[in-house]
Amino acid sequence: MKEEIKSLFTKMELKATEFKSRQIEKMAERITAKMDKKVNLTDEQKAKVYQINMDMLTKGKAIMTDKSGNSMKEKKNIIKGEMKEEWFEFKNTLTEEQLSKIKHINKFEKKLEK
After folding, report:
1. Which stretches in the chain have pLDDT values below 50?
2. Burial of 101 (0-12, 13-18, 19+ CB in 10 A)
3. What span, in angstroms and rounded, lies between the C-alpha atoms of 57 and 75?
4. DSSP for 62-113, written as a single string
5. Which residues have C-beta within 8 Å of that of residue 54, sequence separation ≥ 6?
6. CA 1 to CA 14: how far, in whole Å?
7. Is 50 left (phi over 0), alpha (psi -120 to 50) or beta?
8. End-to-end CA separation in angstroms for the chain
9. Are 89 and 52 in contact (CB under 8 A)?
10. Which of 34, 53, 59, 91 could hold 28 in an S-S bridge, CB 3.0 to 4.6 Å?
11. By residue range, what is the domain housing residue 30?
């Protein structure tokens, strides 16, 4: 009986992890689609932008759920540092014209510079 219960909990944990992974994928898809609508990404850019979004969301989730004892402010600073790296990937993927069309990215860049 104990083994059956343990097996059931293991399956439930795996499903919860899988569900969370799908949530991140869906969020990355929505963000990428929104960017595509604004700047008309090429197929190659869509793939790269999707991967950048997946990386950012995955890293952000890992940092926010980390139990290492960092305060919320420290976690936000860590995320900000990670996002600076991802931002450079966006800049290398999109054209200058595309970057100028994305207002929230331009605002984000100014925040990163502070």
Report:
1. 1-2, 4-16, 19
2. middle
3. 14
4. HHHH--S---HHHHHHHHHHHHHHHHHHHHHHS-HHHHHH-HHHHHHHHHHH
5. 24, 25, 28
6. 20
7. alpha
8. 58
9. yes
10. 53
11. 2-113
Both structure tokens of 27: 């969020």
The rounded mean pLDDT for the chain is: 76
By the 8 A CB rule, do 35 and 102 touch?
yes
Residue 16 CB neighbours (<10 A): 10
Q: Tokens 């940092």 label which residue?
A: 63
Structure tokens at 73: 């402010």
Structure tokens at 93: 């993927």
Give the residue carrying structure tokens 């909990």. Answer: 9
User: Per the structure block, which two tokens stand in for 92?
Assistant: 């290398």
Closest by CA position to 55, among listed 83, 20, 22, 78: 83
Q: How far apart are CA 74 and CA 21, in angstroms?
A: 24
- The two three-digit tokens of residue 65, written as one number: 């759920």
User: Tens of pLDDT along 41-67?
Assistant: 999 999 999 999 998 888 888 887 777
What amino acid is encoded at 36 in this protein?
A: D
